[in-house]
Amino acid sequence: MVSEPAAEHDDIARAMRAVPRRDFLPRSQRPFAGQDQPLPIGRGQTSSQPTTVAAMLRLLRVPLGARVLDVGAGSGWTTALLAYLTGPQGSVLGVERDSRLSEWGAANLARTGMDWATLEHSAPGVLGKPRENGWDRILVSAAAAALPRTLVDQVGIGGRMVIPVRTTLLLIERLPDGRTRATDHGGYRFVPLIED
């Protein structure tokens, strides 16, 4: 396995320091922000374990200026981390199917001042957010029962998507000829992805 450049790891570590998890947790969970475990954020959802989030971001390899979709944005923490990685030249959209969580997550995100990132309530019956020419990067923070074709179709040429399918973390890459390649990156546990 080829190791990734140290600079990428540094970027992830810097993002984690710049965007503290504590700011995206309910008040009752903030004392536990430094623990490396999932924490409840309400509505049956969790803030993922920091080492898991870091592993997903390393696989995603978010470049400056990327157009990124965050599916299952919840508290807004991953949306904010992605925004930090894209920088102001990029754009990040978080989508969350629970309307109360999406409102809270949007407010958390707004406090970061990274106005190139937004979080919205997902459209009923729509998984992700289709866009012309697809997304450069897609992060999915909930486990699908099977790889959702609708999300794969939203990955642009040269793009990458990291998604848990059942208990396996997959990296989906869109090749220059339009085909996709899926690789397996170990076992993880996530809340289920609800597909309307």
Beta-strand percent range: 25-35%
Biggest sheet statistics:
7 strands, mixed
Helix count, DSSP H or I runs of 4 or more residues: 5
- CATH topology, which one? Rossmann fold
The level of helicity is 25-40%
Structural description of this entry:
One of its GO terms (cellular component) is cytoplasm. Helix content is 26%, strand content 28%. The chain is of the alpha/beta class and 196 residues long. Strand 4, helix 4 and strand 5 form a beta-alpha-beta unit.
Topology, please?
Blueprint: H1 6-18, E1 39-42, E2 45-47, H2 50-60, E3 67-71, H3 77-86, E4 91-96, H4 99-110, E5 117-121, E6 135-140, H5 149-152, E7 155-165, E8 168-174, E9 180-187
Parallel strand pairs: 3-4, 3-6, 4-5, 6-7
Antiparallel strand pairs: 1-2, 7-8, 8-9
Helix pairs in contact: 1-2, 1-3
Supply database-style keywords.
single chain, 196 residues, alpha/beta, Rossmann fold, 7-stranded mixed sheet, 5 helices, globular
